[in-house]
Each structure stands twice: as C-alpha cells, then as structure tokens.
Design goal:
CATH architecture: 2-Layer Sandwich
Number of helices: 4
Low-confidence stretches: none
Number of strands: 5
Radius of gyration: 13 Å
Helix content: 40-55%
Number of domains: 1
Order of helices and strands: EEHEHEHEH
CATH superfamily: STAS domain
Largest sheet: 5 strands, mixed
CATH class: Alpha Beta
Length: 111
C-alpha cells in the first residue's frame, strides 16, 4: 500500500494505492492523520481510486481513521471508490457511516 498526500483548497487528500491489507502500512496512515490533526488539518479526503484489493483489516484501518479524525473535531470523507471497495462497504453496512463522494474534488467541495 502506497500513500501520497496532495492538497486541494487547503484540504489534504490521502491517495491510497495498492492492496489495503492492514499490517505495518497502517501505522503510516495513522501517523499521517495524527500529523494532519497536529497541523490543524482536521478535514481529510481519502482517495481510494488506486486500491486494487481490500480486506477486513484494510476496512478497519479506515474505520479507525474515521474515528480518530472525528474525535479531533474533523471529518473524513472517502472518494473514488473502486467497485470492490464499494461492495465490501455495502456488505458490512459501513457505506452508511462514511461520507462517500464520486471524486476527490467533489469531496473537497463538500466541506
């Protein structure tokens, strides 16, 4: 799993590419979120367009990230979900928890 951060209208966008399987890479994701919170960037978009595969640990990473940002007084939105990720979120009923947008630009504009 690779993480890239870009900014759009002062909103950080974390682009995730590869396989979201949990494991050591999740520490990088949480570290990024903590850094953003410390920098007062509490509204975050997670762009999942590059995700090839996700398992329950990968979904758990998103849930924990969502909770971390929410507890800091911010909001985390998901964008550009591949059909496989949409399916997992739908089956787990988490599609009703996350604010999901079609594109990262749409997510940024919704803040």
């Amino acid at each position: 799993m690779n993480l890239t951060v870009i900014e759009n209208r002062k909103i950080p966008i974390i682009k995730i590419e590869g396989k979201m399987l949990g494991g050591p890479e999740t520490k990088d994701f949480y570290s990024l979120l903590q850094q953003m919170i410390m920098e007062q960037n509490k509204n975050v978009v997670v762009d999942l367009s590059g995700v090839k595969y996700v398992n329950s640990s990968g979904i758990g990473m998103l849930v924990r990230g969502f909770t971390t940002i929410k507890e800091a007084g911010g909001e985390m939105k998901l964008a550009s979900l591949p059909s496989k990720v949409k399916g997992v979120l739908s089956i787990s009923k988490l599609h009703s928890v996350f604010d999901i947008k079609n594109t990262a630009d749409e997510a940024v504009g919704s803040f």
